[in-house]
Amino acid sequence: MIDLYYVEDDPDIAQTVKEYLEQRGFRVTICNTLLQAKRALQAHVPMCILLDWNMPDGHGDSLCQWIRLNRQEVPIIFLTVRGDSPDIVSGFQSGADDYVVKPFELEVLYSRIQALLRRTGSVERPYLSCGGIMIDLDRKSVSCHAEEILLSAAEYQLLLYLMQNKGKTVTREQILAQIWDVHGNYVNDNTLTVTMKRLRDKLHRPACLKTIRSMGYRMEDTI
Known about the structure:
Elements: E1 2-7, H1 11-22, E2 26-31, H2 34-43, E3 48-51, E4 54-55, E5 58-59, H3 60-69, E6 76-80, H4 85-93, E7 98-101, H5 106-120, E8 127-130, E9 133-136, E10 141-144, E11 147-149, H6 153-164, E12 170-171, H7 172-180, H8 189-202, E13 209-212, E14 216-219
Parallel strand pairs: 1-2, 1-3, 3-6, 6-7
Antiparallel strand pairs: 4-5, 8-9, 9-10, 10-11, 12-14, 13-14
Helix pairs in contact: 6-7, 6-8
């Protein structure tokens, strides 16, 4: 199922688009403000974003720029009444992939989304995210609230394993076996403690990385 965020403050338009796309196999999440959209993006990167320009807490082009600054290549389509040439040019300059002017036909919007997904190859986005922390799997890079974080190989593998199991408690034994023993490197339990402390410090002590007493650790969204 293709998941999609629709950033729109008009509840009637949002609901109409949501119902139409969900009948065609999409999973649509409505964001009523730019802030809500940012929080949703920090928790999960969808396969496509529909974005209105005029929002209660700002303009959609600022969110588009924020997304691109976070190195997220998720396809973005502006869906707005602002159809003047300068607005359209500004939308594309902000990082949009397509621009649809209201009013629009739902069938046309659906076709534009499908064409964009084919063009960008958006079958599965190469990102893992949780609570503002994001791993770009293609680049093997890590950012925390748009700040790039440099990790050692062990710290990266630890964060990757936790993110791959987001929402699940993983034991210290599982982590040691997965990250170190699988490579034939025997280490003692203190190695994990030290690596975890360094990782937490570099990520500014994130609330989404939790210690489960007497068991292990769990990554979970805090929004």
